[in-house]
Specification:
With about 270 residues, this protein is an alpha/beta fold. Helices cover about 25% and strands about 25% of the residues. α1 (about 15-30) packs parallel to α3 (about 60-75). The N and C termini lie far apart (about 50 Å).
């Protein structure tokens, strides 16, 4: 399988519509890849909190339409990163009152929406995304020929139980778009490798370049194999990181070193 991670720069001087067209052009340039991945909130910038509401769009809005067409033109599976989604009233969700979500979109090579994932862990503690956006409730996997993707987004990377759930649901390739800050770049690399090792899965983590609302971005998108070995890593600037890997290595690793079979679940809390 060939994966191309598009580490876009988010320039505040570039309009959302222009960046959307530029992202689509970059996706089309990856024809020949099996899977293409864009970063988190690349339409606005992950730290441009004041823009979330203004730039929010319905699930099947302009980014959906542009990315669906780009996936079909390139003939690739496309994880189109995430967008600030405004849930449409009456959409049948638990919250259909116009709540904002940080929502990832995955398209098939025909341009069909294969999955949408609303980010579960929102960053910011008592401000920013944590108070401006609703929390997703569902783990999401996407079956591809030869591999099953498990979806997470940025801050999710710090919560290993989410990825255990994805592995239990059959995922062997964990895909994580992000807008990770430069000041915590060491955590980005460390946690990506940890999630790969503990779950014996591939991790494809796609970050952004540039600066979001004054916050320098880490870049350094990374592809890690089930043994924790880094197969490819980007630098700090805008670039496309491409890596070839064999999804069959997941099963081989789990058979060779069957640590997942030794999990002990349902432990009781310590006695007082």
């Amino acid at each position: 399988m060939r994966a191309s991670l598009i580490q876009m720069a988010v320039d505040e001087g570039e309009s959302v519509s222009s960046r959307r067209l530029r992202a689509a052009a970059l996706v089309r340039e990856q024809a020949g890849a099996d899977l293409v991945v864009l970063p988190e909130l690349w339409t606005t910038g992950a730290f441009a909190y004041e823009d979330f509401g203004r730039a929010a769009e319905p699930l099947e809005g302009p980014t959906y339409e542009t990315m669906a067409e780009a996936a079909a033109d390139a003939g690739v599976w496309l994880h189109a990163g995430s967008i600030p989604e405004r849930a449409a009233s009456g959409d049948g969700s638990a919250q259909d009152d116009g709540t904002l979500y940080n929502t990832s979109l995955v398209f098939s090579p025909s341009g069909r929406l294969a999955a949408a994932y609303r980010k579960i862990h929102r960053f910011g503690f008592d401000r920013g995304e944590a108070v401006l956006m609703g929390a997703g409730q569902d783990l999401v996997t996407v079956p591809l020929p030869g591999a099953t993707l498990g979806l997470g987004t940025c801050y999710d990377l710090r919560f290993p139980e989410l990825f255990r759930g994805l592995v239990d649901a059959g995922a062997g390739v964990l895909v994580l778009p992000a807008g990770w800050p430069e000041r915590r770049r060491a955590h980005w690399t460390l946690l990506a490798r940890a999630r790969a090792v503990e779950n014996q899965a591939f991790v494809l983590a796609c970050g952004t370049a540039g600066t979001h609302a004054g916050v320098p971005q880490a870049g350094h998108s990374i592809v890690v194999d089930p043994w924790g070995e880094v197969l490819a890593e980007a630098g700090p600037g805008e670039e496309v990181l491409t890596a070839d890997f064999d999804p069959a290595k997941v099963a081989a690793t789990r058979e060779q070193f069957p640590a997942l079979k030794d999990r002990v679940l349902g432990l009781a809390p310590p006695r007082r």
